[in-house]
Design a protein that fits this description.
The chain is α+β, with helices and mostly antiparallel strands. It has helices at about 45-60, 110-130, 140-150; strands at about 5-15, 25-30, 35, 40-45, 70, 80-85, 90-95, 100-110. The protein starts with 5 loop residues before the first strand and ends with a helix.
Length: about 150
């Protein structure tokens, strides 16, 4: 299987913060001409990016092949199962979870290093915009911390 680039798409124009300091905005994956969960998907962008940082950290620093991490969304029964195949190869299964089974929409392999770089790039764009808006929350602080750790 050829390695593909997985992009993490965010749209800064769609960001909103509620009374509880929870931030939502468009966030979705694109692989070639496929989108997951859907193009223009709206979700709790700061929270799930922090989750994804933790998942890629676990995959990146594990010496074991076969380790599995979930890249989850908060809205909907949708997630990506990432399995470390080798030192720099990650298999990603894009899944819609049903009541009694998992529907795998598509599968691909990517470079862990390139995926990590794309994650950091998207996160830095988001954090810059949040700083420009003077938005602050515990979730933002957590994401800043996770991005710093992943960037080292």
């Amino acid at each position: 299987m050829d390695l593909v680039e997985i992009k993490i798409n965010i749209c800064l124009d769609t960001l909103s913060m509620d009374d509880y300091n929870l931030i939502t905005g468009e966030i979705y994956f694109s692989v070639d001409n496929q989108y997951f969960p859907d193009e223009k998907w709206d979700d709790f962008i700061v929270v799930i990016l922090a989750w994804w940082h933790k998942a890629i950290l676990n995959l990146n620093y594990s010496r074991r092949n076969g380790i599995v991490q979930k890249f989850e969304f908060m809205d909907g029964p949708l997630f990506i199962r990432g399995t470390k195949i080798s030192e720099d190869i990650l298999e990603m299964e894009f899944i819609n979870e049903k009541i009694d089974y998992e529907h795998i929409l598509f599968t691909c392999q990517t470079s862990i290093i390139k995926f990590k770089k794309n994650l950091i790039k998207s996160t830095r764009q988001l954090l810059k915009e949040l700083k420009n808006r003077n938005w602050q929350s515990d979730d933002i602080e957590e994401l800043e911390k996770m991005c710093k750790i992943l960037s080292e």
